[in-house]
UniProtKB/TrEMBL annotation:
NCBIfam families: SAM_7_link_chp (TIGR03915). This is TIGR03915 family putative DNA repair protein. It comes from Pontibacter cellulosilyticus. Residues 84-251 form the DUF4130 domain. InterPro entries: DNA_repair_put, DUF4130.
Amino acid sequence: MGLYTYDGTFEGLLTVVFEAYERKTWPHTIEQEHLAQPSMFGQNIAVTTDEEKVSRVWKGLQKKLSVGALKALYHTYLWEQPGFEMLLFDYMKLAIDSKECIEDNYAASCVLRVQQAAKQMFREKHRMEAFVRFQKTADDLYYATISPDFNVLPLIIQHFEKRYADQRWVIYDTQRKYGAFYDLNAVTLVNLESQPDKRTSSAANNIFSEEEDKYKQLWQVYFDHVNIPERKNPKLHLRHIPKRYWKYLSEKQPRLQLETK
């Protein structure tokens, strides 16, 4: 048994699987190299991502698992909850070692937990796709910030790329400090090294075009019209739109004063 460290990538995790089988040394812990604390007991094995080893492991998994199960593995990696590395390792080892398909073997805790994680990711993905609201900057760039419970940004890019193919946009995950930038041709992942301080916050607010207030007003008016008082159901409303998502919704922001002429 040993501590395996890797670079934090999905490919790095697949390399850990290859190394463990090659060494016949199974991990008791897998940690990202910048977070790992050396173990006083057992081996400390630092793994370097190797594309050839990644390919061999992935091809082996493709023979054992369906496309849906392979997606669930990647979604569990993006799930990022404590212990997800060992959960994925246990699942992949079970799949590789078993002669039969393991996907419905819910007696194995790792199979059940991967399915549960994938369902959580699916729900968060669709909520983000529904609740993201863009603001238009003065140079015609549409900008939105998100702070999801899980790392779903890679999963929602395709949705927005198709829906807003004729607009330049950025979706930035403020919690994980990276975003996706679409330039009308392709999507590029971007990082902001630092956040603006208080001295620049007022200047940053001026970057948004005057049209943005009009967009917010339109969303609020639409929401008022479809939100018929006689049909209000607060519990149902909160179940479909939890409060933690309200910060993304224009209709949930303080009312803007309409100009009168």
